[in-house]
Amino acid sequence: MNALDALKSQCAACQCCDLAYHRNQVVVGRGNPGADLMLIGEAPGADEDSQGLPFVGRSGRLLSELLEAAELDEEQDLHICNVIKCRPPNNRKPTSNEIKQCRPWLEEQIALVNPSLVLLAGATALQALLGIKSGISKLRGQWHEQEGKAFMPVFHPSYLLRFGSREEGSPRALTLQDFQEAKRRLSALRG
User: How far apart are CA 142 and CA 138, in angstroms?
Assistant: First the structure.
């Protein structure tokens, strides 16, 4: 059993908060366990809870589309996870206590994957990882160096689903630019 499989088993046994009593499965992560790039979202939704994998519903399909357009391979170039590992009822935002209770699992996952670059999808991930409460609109696309890693806030795919436009300056177009910047920095990192 590798370290991420062990983490998944530990998360499956976790009952630190009430989410444990409502979940079907814990949702730990997917993609390359040794990737230099990690994407962290908010929390699993219904599809994720059913399949045990992050970003597999409508948001996940859009995420896949944008990653492919930026020439990032989901299985090779990055590791994808969420701030919390269990689905909040009715897909509500996780509470600060739920985030606090799940924080050790996320920290261990980050340590195991040890990415150099981290994309923070949405305000919850931004606040949980960097402690920044500002809106994503002002901070997206900018790298923030912390603890030897570079973090970039990006719009969450669920937010992008509200906008059909792909015109220059639209949230989708900006997110594609952010992913292309992540690809550029990843390529530079690899030399």
Answer: 9
pTM higher than 0.90, yes or no?
yes
DSSP labels for 155-166? --HHHHTT----
pLDDT of 52-96, one tens digit each? 999 999 999 999 999 999 999 999 999 999 999 999 999 899 999
Q: Look at residue 111 and give its three-state secondary structure.
A: helix
Architecture of domain 3-190: 3-Layer(aba) Sandwich (3.40)
Alpha-helical segments (H) within the chain: 3-13, 46-51, 58-69, 96-113, 123-130, 136-139, 157-160, 171-190
- 150 three-class SS: strand
Q: Where are the alpha helices (DSSP H) in 70-147?
A: 96-113, 123-130, 136-139
